[in-house]
C-alpha cells in the first residue's frame, strides 16, 4: 500500500508545555482526511509539522510530487494585486499559466487587478486558495479552508475538493465545519490530550 504521509512518534511542545504527544498517522495516497476540534488542541501544529514549517521531535515522511499549503495566516503580498501575487507564486513554482477557470469558479476574476489590501477577507481567502493550487499539487494541506468564505464560495470550494478527491489527490484538512467537510472525508480525527482519536463523521454533523 502506498502512503502519501507517514508520521511516527511526533511530539511538539511550546514553552515546555506538550501539545502533541507521540502522534502516529499513515495517510494513504488519494485519501481525504479531516482533523476537527477546538482551538489550541494542536491541529494546526500537526499540519505545520507535516508541511515542514515547525521544528518537532519524531519522524514525518511525505511522498508527493508537489504540496499545496493553505494556512490560517495571510500569505499574500498586500501591496500587490491578485494578478501580481499569482505571478510571483507562479514564478516560484515554475507555473506560467494560471487556471482561469478556477479563478472564474471562485468569483475572483473581477478582483484580479485590485491590491490585496483592498479586498474583503473572503476575496483574500479565495486568492490564497488559487495560489495554493498553483503547480497542480497532489497533496493538499488545508488549515481552516472555509474560514472567511460566504456560503456560495464554500459550496464552490467544496465542489473543487470533491473533484480533487475524484482525481486521486491526497487532502489533509483542519476544519471547524465538520458538517460541511465530513461528507468528503474518508477518515476523521480529533486531537485529545495530544493524541489522535478517530471519530465517525456521523457523530460530528
UniProtKB/TrEMBL annotation:
Cite the InterPro entries for this sequence: AAA+_ATPase (IPR003593), ABC_transporter-like_ATP-bd (IPR003439), ABC_Transporter_VariousFunc (IPR051782), P-loop_NTPase (IPR027417)
Which residues does the UniProt record annotate as the domain ABC transporter? 5-205
User: Gene3D superfamilies, alphabetically?
Assistant: P-loop containing nucleotide triphosphate hydrolases
Q: State the SMART domains in the record.
A: AAA
What name goes with this protein?
A: ABC transporter domain-containing protein
A GO molecular function held by the record: ATP hydrolysis activity
Q: Which residues form the signal peptide?
A: none
Which UniProt keywords are given for this protein, alphabetically ordered? ATP-binding, Nucleotide-binding, Transport
